[in-house]
Specification:
alpha+beta, six-stranded antiparallel beta barrel, OB fold (Dihydrolipoamide Acetyltransferase, E2P), 3 domains, rod-shaped, about 45% strand
């Protein structure tokens, strides 16, 4: 009993010291900081159009009426397939007949004047006037023939395999001279027109790579190149149009299709990290690097993005790894333990 009392007295005399608590740590994953070329992209929207020089506009230089229309807008046609029949306006035919009659009269009048001149009953001035009248009559008839005024009905066939990209008239319509009836575009000869913000035009140049995707259909991207940059703002879209040259083998793209174009700008050598490494709070963008098993917060400026990577700049140490997982739980100076790959 005396021994027990002595031990209790010793415990009360000397305080018990607690063991220090272990420093909290966070499980993380890291990658090395890399420096590599990364390209900036510009995304623009537009539509597919027939290539320049790959279309044929069907119109007539005389007034008339569409007697028969054999095609519809968007229809694919073969070479030699009938497109339409055009009936010449009766008034145009009257002008042709008048030109024929005037020519017959002018020839007769010249013959008569030549005979009178030989008998000294007409002057040289009268003979010259008769010859001039014949020349005018011949020119007038040739002009009427050139516009087809003497043809009552004319059938137009497709001159190549193509698609009816535009139909501006219907069967039975009466048309003025030169009015567009339809446009025929060659199959596979296409271009894309995209609308780009005016402030981005200075960064573009012909030959840059462009990826074309349909806005609505999930189809593989079509690799193409920037063909030309327009020099004015489109008054309808308030954007600057750029033309993209498409390869001939673009069966997934059709005229009129709405598309999205991704223009690849020049590559720049930059420090690159996965997108997941960059965080943001009220102080701005930052990431964590590891120094002696502790997290170090490094303010950065995020730049060009490409896929899952982003270019960053700041007071980075190229020899230290960057945290890509677990960084949301970190604070500056916190102890970390790295997960094994």
């Amino acid at each position: 009993m005396k021994i027990l009392f002595t031990l209790l007295s010793l415990i009360l005399m000397f305080p018990v010291f607690a063991l220090p608590e272990a420093e909290p740590s966070v499980l993380i994953q890291t990658v090395s900081l890399q420096k590599q070329p990364i390209g900036e992209k510009i995304t623009a929207y537009g539509s597919i159009m027939p290539a320049m020089g790959a279309t044929e506009n069907i119109s007539f230089p005389r007034a008339g009426q569409i007697a028969h229309l054999y095609v519809l807008a968007g229809q694919v046609v073969k070479r030699g397939q009938p497109l339409l029949e055009f009936a010449t306006d009766p008034n145009a035919e009257v002008l042709y007949r008048q030109a024929e009659t005037t020519l017959v009269f002018a020839r007769s009048e010249l013959t008569r004047t030549l005979d009178m001149t030989a008998r000294q009953l007409a002057t040289q001035s009268q003979l010259a006037s008769a010859r001039k009248a014949l020349q005018d009559a011949q020119a007038n008839l040739a002009a009427q023939t050139g516009i087809g005024a003497g043809t009552q009905t004319q059938r137009i066939n497709a001159s190549f395999d193509g698609v009816v990209s535009q139909l501006s008239a219907q069967q039975g319509d009466r048309l003025l001279p030169g009015a567009l009836i339809l446009q025929l575009a060659k199959v596979g000869k296409l271009r894309a027109t995209l609308g780009v913000e005016p402030e981005d035009i200075g960064r573009l140049r012909p030959g840059m790579q462009v990826e074309i995707n349909s806005v609505f259909a999930h189809q593989p991207a079509v690799a193409s190149r920037l063909l030309q940059i327009h020099g004015v703002i489109n008054p309808l879209t308030r954007l600057v149009d750029v033309d993209v040259q498409l390869p001939d083998t673009t069966g997934s793209l059709l005229p009129g299709m709405q598309i999205r174009g991704t223009i690849m700008l020049d590559n720049k050598e930059s420090r690159v990290v996965p997108r997941a490494a960059v965080l943001r709070d009220e102080q701005g963008s930052f990431l964590y690097q590891i120094r002696a098993h502790h997290a170090v917060r490094v303010p950065v400026t995020a730049g060009i993005e490409s896929g899952n990577n982003v270019a960053v700049s700041g007071a980075l140490d190229s020899k230290r790894s960057v945290v890509v997982s677990g960084n949301y739980e970190l604070q500056d100076g916190m102890l970390v333990r790295e997960a094994k790959p």
